[in-house]
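Example 4.3 (complexes with small molecules)
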Amino acid sequence: MTARLLDGRPVASHMWRDLSSRVAALAETGAAPPRLAIIIFERGGSSAVYAGGIARAARSVGVEPFEVEPPDGVSLPDLAARIGALNRDPSVAGIVIAQPVAAHLELPRVVELIDPAKDVDGATPLNAGRQARAEAAFVPATALAVMRLLHHYEVPIAGRRAVVVGRSPVVGRPTAELLLSAHASVMLTHRRTRNLARETRRAEILVVAAGSPNLIRAEMVNRSAVVVDCGINVTEQGIVGDVDFEAVRPVVSAISPVPGGVGPVTTMCLIEQTVRSAEALHARAEQDESLGRFAHRSISLE
Ligand code: NAD
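Answer. The structure with nicotinamide-adenine-dinucleotide bound is encoded below.
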């Protein structure tokens, strides 16, 4: 039997329709289109691919992306002033950093400059902490994409044994936390895990985010497993995931392809969080306006 394919494209299309109508609803109130700032330190390479993909997806739903390119050698205080201006600008709903950051800067120090309310890729320590406590937070888009994919294909999560391979703060760890919040029993594995195959074979839901092509082979999975592959590896054969797709697909119950699985959903998740931020900003502005009107009326009654 061949596994069900967890195709990310219909999930992304479904999200696109929902987000387009939410942005249109904001526009109907007379609000300007929400803006998404992409901070980019190096022209070309993976940064440009990342920024380009996000910008296209943003534009497609009516969000206005723009790139902010700090000058070479920018100091942390100078960067803080630039990001601070974006934090205060009510037209900016989201701020993301296209990695890598400039070599003389440390990523955690750069990320901390973003207002957590505009941190639409869930990168700041405050959002990570909130997520770890299962509170409402912006979360890393790839982790959210894994959950959207599982929900779309109605994969039961509560009570299931989930194994996540990879513990990075961007993918593995936040995915494990979201699965835990959805009531799975979660095992988080990594490079130092002894006997990885013994752990992955126990998984009913197996999420792989290791950055290692063909890491997961047929003998490492069980027949009932739902496998979600987050890996993006550029090889001579093209882009492949972390799972040996051809060998694993015949021996599991469902599997996501690479490309076309988690990837397209990830981009939409980032835009979804941007739209959520825009809606919150809009609601706050309306509230401030009505409070202002109320204050004005009470003053004029005196
Ligand atoms: P990372 O290098 O920061 O982390 C890799 C993790 O995998 C580490 O915790 C490491 O311990 C673990 N690991 C590596 N090799 C292992 C092995 N042989 N056995 C067990 N554990 C192992 O990478 P990352 O940023 O988390 O990215 C992981 C993968 O996901 C990469 O291929 C990356 O390109 C991809 N990615 C995809 C998306 C997306 O939208 N689909 C987004 C971000 C990253």
